[in-house]
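WARN no homologs supplied; continuing
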Amino acid sequence: MEKRSLGNSDILITPIILGTWQAGKRMWVGIEDLDIIQAIRATVDEGITTIDTAEQYGDGYSEQMIAKAVKDKRESLVYATKVFANHLKYNQVVEACERSLKNLQTDYIDLYQIHWPSGSFNTEIVPIEETMKALNHLKEQGKIRAIGVSNFSLTQLEEAAQYGRIDSLQPPYSLFWRYIETEAMPYCVDHQISILAYSPLAQGLLTGKFQPGHQFDPEDNRSQNKLFQGETFEIAHEAIKQLSPIAQRYECTLAQLTLAWLIAQPQTQAIVGARNAQQARDNAKAAAIKLSAEDLQTIDRIGQSVSKPFEGDRVMWDW
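OK structure emitted
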């Protein structure tokens, strides 16, 4: 699989990245450890070398699952994890990093990210200068190789960049959720900041397997996803019908088609979750699909029928 530079660092990442929120189990249902371990191993076998996680995913459980699955292949992999919004004071960042190193059974983290801006979810406000000072110190020590931010607005990204090099931004981004395109993407392109798109399949909506009226378990975070609500869900279903013939022409699934569209966007890689080995193998195939310029434009137009009402909205969930 092709490799791309992470920001302006010497770290090489794959255009498809394995996401492991589900491995932490919290806010997901029907997740089995053995399936997750097999999914992680299958992902690596398919040539995907970049794995994204966070301390918040099951209080480190996701990180531990990664170690169980592929610790013997650590040197050939790129680990990206995150410190949560309640751990952004200097000492808290350092302590959180140490916990993640232990969970991942490694002595360095390739990409360490601020998961949510200070103050999110009613957390204490911590000056970004203090947080960045801790991250820069960890980088100098060799415990982390690059710094990234997640769920930051353009203003927050610009402020963080005043205190150190930011090599990645991790926003929600898919064919159906495209706030990033008009907000921070131009800045990322100009400053060589990689965009690591999470929820690139709109939490499964772009697979086409959910019909209008589908009800999620209340414990499933998708029960609060704005894209699965009312009229939006119905409009999305119509858009999926229009995308299906294009996927058939490329002899791929809807998921693979929309992932191929996403990783063709400027500076963009896709973080994709997998519940089992087959999903992991299917996701990896998207990297080999090369869409024509005409089809990229057509897919773009179809997606806007869903994304347009949310173009000023950064958060997909009604939390």
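The domain at 4-207+254-291 is CATH 3.20.20.100 (TIM Barrel).
OK
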